[in-house]
TrEMBL record:
Protein name listed in UniProt: Cytochrome c oxidase polypeptide II
Compartmental location: Membrane
Similarity-based family: Belongs to the cytochrome c oxidase subunit 2 family.
Domain Cytochrome oxidase subunit II copper A binding: 88-203
Species per Swiss-Prot/TrEMBL record: Lutibaculum baratangense AMV1
Length: 306
């Protein structure tokens, strides 16, 4: 997640300003140390013309110029981060911050929206406009190697443009303190070669028709009774209560926004002990359910959450 390893133009600009600040601060520090040593080792100065000039130049003119130069440079770089004069058609996604996970929405042609969680699939080498908002408190969307962070504010939508230079996987993190599990609010961006991201969307949408009709069996019934108020299995439909959509669950690399690696074991561990994995998260415990019921739900999810 290092900003010093930029993988996009925007992150490159952020890294540039970081290095300018770093070397600038180092030079100022060196000057201050030399001055400090000089002051300590020489006879006390007598007030005079030389001293006044020194204070005027070193204490007022020099800092004003330095800060002014940094301001102009910062404004110029900030301007360069805005998607002006880029005639390429951006890919559009929507991200909604929740305590403590990310809802990812892909608007489709024809008005439908596919809903996913904690993992973003986009094309590499193409600008992506991320429309960011929040369902509860203020969060901040940040994938350090992709570019600047942007706040997720309830009732307001901010847009940040990102672009992955190369296909790959990039980690992100909520970067505005949002409560107990703020640090446990991780997200993952997968930049695909060519149209690879469409395969993901197709599976997400395709599995939904099946997921929507809950099917028969003990797992389906137990899911409907205990889980479906908060979790949808249909990527086109949100659940009534805010919980991450479980459509396309098996395609995710981790569960609980980075809490545990996904897989047969991870899923069962999440279901039985998510409050010790991610203390305080907003999913209730299900200790009152029999282990067989949990197992039936897990098996059902593995089959339906494709
Ligand atoms: C009151 C709402 C609520 C209920 C009921 C509920 N959950 Fe959750 N669930 C959540 C929330 C909120 C999260 C996100 C936790 C986090 O990451 O902070 C979550 C996360 C999950 C995840 C991880 C998804 C991911 O991709 O990170 C799974 C799997 C899951 N729940 C399964 C279930 C199952 C199975 C049941 C029924 C036995 C259930 N949940 C009942 C609210 C609920
Ligand atoms: Cu946060």
């Amino acid at each position: 997640m290092s900003i010093l390893e930029p993988a996009s133009r925007g992150a490159g600009a952020v890294a540039d300003i970081w290095w300018v600040m770093f070397w600038g601060a180092l030079v100022v520090l060196a000057i201050m140390i030399v001055l400090g040593l000089y002051a300590a080792s020489s006879r006390p100065w007598h007030a005079g013309k030389g001293l006044t000039a020194f204070i005027l130049v070193g204490g007022i003119a020099w800092p004003t110029l330095t800060v002014l130069a940094l301001l102009v440079y910062g404004l110029w770089l900030g301007e360069a981060l805005l998607p002006r004069g880029d005639s390429r058609e951006p890919y559009r996604i929507e991200v909604v911050g929740h305590q403590w996970w990310w809802e990812i929405r892909y608007p489709q042609e024809g008005g439908a929206t596919l809903i996913d969680a904690n993992e973003i699939h986009v094309p590499a080498g193409r600008p992506v406009d991320v429309h960011v908002t929040s369902a509860d408190v203020i969060h901040s969307f940040w994938i350090p190697r992709m570019g600047p962070k942007i706040d997720a504010v309830p009732g307001y939508t901010n847009v940040v443009r990102i672009e992955a230079d190369e296909p790959g996987t990039y980690r992100g993190q909520c970067s505005e303190f949002c409560g107990l599990q703020h640090a446990g609010m991780v997200l993952r961006l997968v930049a695909h070669e060519g149209d690879g991201h469409l395969d993901h969307l197709e599976r997400l949408g395709g599995g939904s028709a099946e997921g929507a009709d809950a099917g028969a069996g003990a797992g389906a019934a137990a899911f409907a009774e205990n889980c479906s108020a908060c979790h949808s299995l249909d990527a086109t439909q949100p659940a009534a209560d805010p919980g991450p959509s479980l459509a396309g669950l098996s395609q995710r690399a981790f569960l609980g926004a980075g809490a545990i690696a996904n897989g047969p074991e991870g899923l069962r561990t999440w279901l039985s002990s998510h409050q010790s994995l991610k203390p305080g998260n907003l999913m209730p415990t299900f200790h009152h359910l029999e282990p067989e019921t949990i197992e039936a739900i897990a098996a059902f999810l593995e089959e339906r959450g494709r």
